[in-house]
Amino acid sequence: MTPPFVSVIVPTHRRPVLLERLLRSLVAQDWPRDRFEIIVVHNATPDDTAARVARIAAGSDVPIAYVATAFSGPGPSRHFGAGQARGDILAFTDDDCEATPGWIAAGARAIAGGLALVQGRTLPHPGQPRRLLEKTVSVTGPTPYFETCNIFYDAAAFRAVGGFPEDFRERFYGEDTALGWAVRMAGYPTGYAPDALVHHEVFAVSFLDWLMQPRAMRHWPFIVRAYPALRRELFLGYFLSPLSACFTLFAIGLAGAVLHPALLLLTLPYLAIRFIDRGRLRNPLHLAARFVFGLPRAVVLSATLLASSIRARTLVL
Q: For the chain, which residues make up each domain, given as ranges?
């Protein structure tokens, strides 16, 4: 049987070196050379992105299309790229990723098995140093976020729901989650392919940048309002995670302690989860530092969600 044709869509902005790494990993895929294409949608910047793409395309037996645009963010770029695609399958990844050789094959295999949406596995780039304050992505199982750093769509299903929902397409973060839920709510089957692996760059970030990262969740209550079934994925139906629920108790306990010291007991679940769930940290000093640095970040997340919940008229904490 003829393998399905796959269109790989890559939005890019101010990352020419990382984009080149990604493109080389895509050109090296173990998928028939005449059965996939790469579409680069560049939110144009005055750098050498276009020249790097042209150089790789000139030596590639896989067609690489380059389009310079002036979109406001990655959502419109992805939607535009999908509109140019010829593929039976649309594969999305980002310019700060690197695909492993079997990435396309694993995603296409899952789509051919009857799924309309397939999340791949994303891990921090191996060999890069991990930091207490960093920005990266780790997806080790199906998530309700449907991150477009590593995801595959059946093109017919993508077009049947209208692509990235217009209400969220222009928002920076959240358009991928909205699309995934639009596909799921339309009744299409979704799944996860652990062999569709990409590695994500590990960025060092300043404390201020790290502190403000949770503001990206400001669209989450609006997405929950648009797709009410998403509440089933929330902890107790209202919290992003057990950690955010425990932080709410922590805040209530601290505030209520002026009324009765016994309310300080409400702070214990948050303290326990921060020190019992060690994650990748093993050094007790690192755990203590994570707690100290994490408190203001948790405040930012809670404040962001509360303010957005008020505007969206639906509660997510």
A: 6-205, 206-317
